[in-house]
Each structure stands twice: as structure tokens, then as C-alpha cells.
Amino acid sequence: MSNTFFGAIADDFTGATDLAAMLARAGVPVTLRIGLPEAGSEAATTFEVIALKIRTNPIEDAVAEARAAYRWLKAQGARRVFWKYCSTFDSTQRGNIGPVADALMTEMGLDRTVHCPAFPENGRRVFMGNLFVNELPLNESPMKDHPLTPMRDANLERLLRPQVQRQTALVAFPTVRTGSDAVREALGRLQGHIVLDAVEDADLQTLAGAIHDMPLICGGSAIAQPLPVLWREAGAMGVPDIAPLPDVGDGQIALSGSCSAMTRAQVGHYLKTAVGYRLDPLELAESGGMAAARVWLKAQDPLAPKIVYATAEPSSVTLAQEKLGVARAGALVEDALAQLAQDARAMGIGRVVVAGGETSGAVTRALGVDRLRIGPEIAPGVPWCFAADGLALALKSGNFGAETFFTDAFNMLEHGAVSSVA
Ligand SMILES: Nc1ncnc2c1ncn2[C@@H]1O[C@H](COP(=O)(O)OP(=O)(O)O)[C@@H](O)[C@H]1O
Ligand SMILES: O=C(O)[C@@H](O)C(=O)COP(=O)(O)O
């Protein structure tokens, strides 16, 4: 058995890099694995994050994959387990947040766990059990129009209840503001899935003080940031070594399959300086649709700023979904961007930014990446990541980053920020 201390299971790839970035901020080196590690893969390290792509899978498949990941982490000795899902609680009416949390509790023999999606730095706040995105309740935010997981309620207990077999509960804001001891006492009285309020980073610090010794924590990435310091102070883990980051190849491309409001603004902004090719799922469904995109890419200068995007307004997404079905429209776009990522690599392009969680999963898999090192953060929750073969990948969650995100990302590598990272 090796000495893994922290093991996380992320329900998508952008979520995994987001969590890894938060841990890296706390000064710990993180090993991010794409998919369940195969027999003979590199030895486990102190901080392991396993990126799965199970946010919208059938529940049974998602639970089976998460369970297998947990068993691998347990075999490596993990003493703290983290179920990373989206800070906007992206899920369908039945899953997969609740069923995976339930399955992990059963595997670990637990009668309580906590749910903390709050990420104040990115505008996600939980107050009286209700999740807000910036000023809006979740169900009034752009998440109401998400192509795969439209969110139609903001109350986390109400969202969880149909997804879980255990009871739900809340540790509300007044208790959180009283301090870590009060939160700990409240948790001691509750069972099942306990939602935690948090409005500011200071609340996350308070919560972390109360929950750092819990075996299973569920939520977004932000609650993970204060934990390593507390674990170190409590003597629960040692201080792992940090290795230098690898070299990065030249050439660049942005690939966007996200239709989130922020990505739409970012693509619009980037098109002012980069050349672009727009993918339309209806065209991709016809013969020749994909071939045209590949011909376009092949004609581009590998070094020049460029973007291929399916990013579109909700009305256009709905139209494609009505004609093709939700799953087929999504799969056509994901497969196309995955193929174009492979083509870009064949052209010698070494710097790839991907927008969209599902999209990132499809692209990363197509590139055959199985392990990533975490580099500098471009925006909160979005780090550059490095694969073994000179490939730099940035996987951007739909609503993360400033409007200038794509330019910021590529500029960062140009200006040598990589070598300055701890
Ligand atoms: N124009 C479009 N019409 C229909 N579906 C689309 C379109 N563009 C992208 N999609 C699909 O929408 C989904 C977006 O999800 P994702 O990549 O996770 O983005 P986000 O991070 O914004 O949630 C993907 O499955 C993608 O293939
Ligand atoms: O927690 C978050 O918001 C992100 O880490 C995340 O999971 C976002 O998902 P996508 O927007 O689908 O990339």
C-alpha cells in the first residue's frame, strides 16, 4: 500500500482541474488522473484527483465508476475522500450528485456527509440552503438554460431529496457565522446529507475548521482550499515534495463546446483578434460537415490565434436539440471537437484551451491523456495543466474566467509564468 492521504473523485474533467487548482493554491502537489488508473500506472501520490465523466451518465453507470474509483483510492490508503461536483450543482432530477454520495457513504460505512458547492470567488454562494449564482438564484441564472442539466430550483435540499435515500439537513448561515465549534456541534446532531451555507471565503474557512476530519466531503472546489493547511497543522499528513513543471510545445488552439453565458462572451471577445470556425450540429449531422471543419483547420498557421466553437445562443441550441435530440446534438459537437483536437496535435500544436466540462472530457480522452500536472491558474479554478509529451491543456468550466480568458490563457504561457509556479 502506498501513502495517499487525499483522494478525490470528480464528475467531470474541468471540475477535476478546478479542484486540483484549489489544492495547488494551498501548496500541495496534486496528481490528476484521467479516468480510473489502469494496472501498472504510475504509483499513487499523497494528493490524488481522479477525473471521471459521469455528470450526465445513467445513474447505475455513474455510481459503478465512482465506486471503482473509491476502491482504488482506498487501496492506496486514502484517509480523506472528496466527491467533487459542480458549484452550480449540475445534475438531473435523479442524479448523479445524490446517488454517488449515497453510494460512497455506504461504501465507507458513514451515516453523515456534507455538501458544500459554494465558491464565492466565482459568485456561487449558499444562503439558507439556496444556491445563488452572482445575484441570482440558481434557477434564474443562465444555468436554467444549460443544454444537458438545466437547473430549475435553487434549494439544495429540495434538489437532493429525490436523488438520495437518506434524509437531508441544513447547517444554516447563523450557525456558520457563530464559528467552527457551533458548526461541529450542529453536525453532531444531524445525519444524512447535510447542506452547508457559505457566503464568503471566511465562511469556508469556518466550515473547514469544523469538517477537516470528516472522511467524506461533497461539493465544489472552494471548500478544499483551506483543508491542506488544517491537515498539516493537525499532523494528519506530511509535506509532499513539488517537482518542476515540464516544457511546453508551441502552437495554439481554442476549442469551445460550452454554450454557457460567460463562454459566449469569451468567444465573442476572442473572435475580435483570433480567426474562428463555427461548428453547427445540424451541419455536422450531414455528410461533409466534419470534413469541412478539418479542411479549415489544416489550412491554418499552427502558431496563430484560432478558435473552433459550437458555442451558440440558447435559441439555436434548442433548435438543434429539437431536430437531433439533446444527446445526439451534444455528441456530434463533442466528437467533432475531439477529432479536431487530434488534428491539431498532428499539426504540432502544443497549447490547447478547451471550454466546457463535457467537451473537455471528450477532447482529453481523444488526446490519450492519462495524467496531468497542475500549473498556474489562468482564472479562479482554471489552471494550465501539463501532460507528459509537451502538451499544455487548459480545461475551462463554462461560466469560469473573465471575458478575456482565451487571450489571458495563451499570454500566460508566452510570458513564462509557468516556471514561476510553486
Ligand atoms: N450549438 C449547439 N447545439 C447543441 N448542443 C451543443 C451546441 N454546442 C455545444 N453543445 C453541447 O452542449 C454541451 C455543453 O456542455 P459542456 O461542454 O459541459 O459545457 P459547460 O461547461 O458550459 O456546461 C456539450 O455536450 C456540447 O456538445
Ligand atoms: O465547480 C465548478 O463550477 C466547476 O468545477 C465545474 O464542475 C463546472 O462544470 P462545467 O461548467 O460543465 O465545466
TrEMBL record:
Coiled coil: none
GO molecular function, one term: kinase activity
Catalytic activity reported: 3-dehydro-L-erythronate + ATP = 3-dehydro-4-O-phospho-L-erythronate + ADP + H(+); 3-dehydro-D-erythronate + ATP = 3-dehydro-4-O-phospho-D-erythronate + ADP + H(+)
Keyword Repressor part of the UniProt annotation: no
Family indicated by similarity: Belongs to the four-carbon acid sugar kinase family.
Function: Catalyzes the ATP-dependent phosphorylation of 3-oxo-tetronate to 3-oxo-tetronate 4-phosphate.
EC number: 2.7.1.217
Superkingdom of origin: Bacteria
The protein's name in its UniProt record: 3-oxo-tetronate kinase
Annotated source species: Jannaschia faecimaris
Residue ranges of every copy of the Four-carbon acid sugar kinase N-terminal domain listed in the record: 7-226
Enzyme type, top EC level: transferase
SUPFAM superfamilies: YgbK-like
Annotated ranges, domain Four-carbon acid sugar kinase nucleotide binding: 254-406
Keyword Acyltransferase: no
UniProt keyword terms in alphabetical order: ATP-binding, Carbohydrate metabolism, Kinase, Nucleotide-binding, Transferase
